[in-house]
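Retry 2 of 3 after timeout on previous attempt. Resubmitting structure tokens to design endpoint.
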């Protein structure tokens, strides 16, 4: 114990290899104590928390006296207001229509203590069959980065592939349902944020994407996370790729919310005797789950009994529109 804090504080103690996923879980609950340093000692990591009673029972809590954290200089300290931005590794994404304000924000991000190599501004909407967008580079000179999420690393280039850090918690929610030995098919895999963690949990995973660059990164990310032996990456139209895996899957992930319903026949064809489908959709808030449920039942027909196990709102998408997920169980009749 360093003894330089004012008083001992409760700390969650976990093995070092579980450090990042635990830090993320505590951060999602707002429990990390920002005024004390995270410490590593004898193969264990100690994460200071604000309320020991609110820590999930799965974690061990001990008293410790970590160093007082040096106050980092934030963009808000420089700008005088709290800006909005996203981080993917050391690439920071802003969304500003005013060029002068965008430049001011980029300068503040670079000047702050936030780890940053590149600042980019969104220059177009997501478009095309690869779901990519244009970027204006405000600082730095590259759009490739390594993003870390729940203990896994993903190399990607945001100019060449689609990736949303906002969906980290949702991806983790799904992955936590996966058991070792399952056979999982990720229909729109991108660089692997669903597929890689599912393989890490011991599932046999087939991951498909239409974008050749996404599949290149997917294969690299499987190697980076030591799951290449359990992950098969397939480039091409999933409707064609799925023909080799009909009746194979215990679990299917369909994260293509605008058009996933167009692929439900393929998802049903992939299903084995019993299969869980994670179907993402974007609908009006007045009936967010009805259209996907109806479309899934129509695709299943008389072949499967469909049970919707979870109706989950992922996030707001646009005024009066929400991004949702149905976790549905298919049982062959």
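Retry 2 succeeded. Sequence:
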């Amino acid at each position: 114990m360093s003894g330089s804090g004012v008083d001992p504080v409760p700390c969650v103690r976990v093995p070092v290899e579980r450090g990042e996923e635990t830090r993320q879980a505590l951060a999602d609950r707002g429990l990390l104590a920002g005024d004390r340093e995270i410490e590593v000692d004898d193969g264990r990591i100690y994460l200071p928390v604000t309320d020991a009673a609110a820590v999930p029972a799965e974690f061990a809590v001990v008293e410790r006296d970590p160093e007082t954290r040096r106050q980092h200089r934030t963009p808000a300290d420089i700008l005088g207001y709290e800006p909005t931005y996203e981080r993917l590794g050391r690439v920071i994404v802003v969304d500003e229509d005013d060029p002068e304000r965008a430049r001011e924000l980029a300068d503040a991000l670079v000047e702050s203590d936030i780890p940053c190599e590149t600042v980019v501004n969104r220059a177009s909407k997501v478009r095309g069959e690869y779901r990519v967008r244009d970027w204006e580079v405000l600082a730095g000179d590259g759009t490739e980065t390594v993003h870390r999420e729940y203990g896994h690393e993903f190399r990607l280039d945001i100019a060449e592939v689609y990736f949303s850090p906002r969906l980290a918690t949702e991806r983790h929610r799904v992955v936590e349902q996966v058991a070792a030995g399952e056979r999982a098919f990720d229909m729109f895999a991108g660089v692997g944020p669903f597929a890689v963690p599912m393989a890490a949990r011991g599932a046999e995973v087939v991951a498909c994407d239409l974008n050749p660059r996404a599949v290149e990164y997917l294969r690299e990310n499987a190697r980076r996370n030591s799951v290449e032996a359990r992950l098969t990456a397939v480039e091409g139209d999933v409707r064609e790729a799925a023909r080799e895996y009909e009746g194979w899957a215990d679990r299917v992930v369909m994260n293509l919310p605008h058009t996933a319903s167009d692929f439900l026949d393929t998802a049903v064809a992939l299903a084995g005797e019993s299969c869980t489908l994670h179907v993402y959709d974007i609908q009006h808030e007045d009936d967010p789950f009805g259209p996907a449920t109806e479309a899934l039942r129509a695709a299943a027909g008389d072949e499967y009994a469909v049970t919707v196990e979870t109706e989950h709102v992922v996030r707001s998408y646009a005024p009066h529109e929400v991004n949702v997920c149905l976790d549905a169980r298919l049982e062959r009749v």
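Attempt log closed. The chain has a mean pLDDT of 94.
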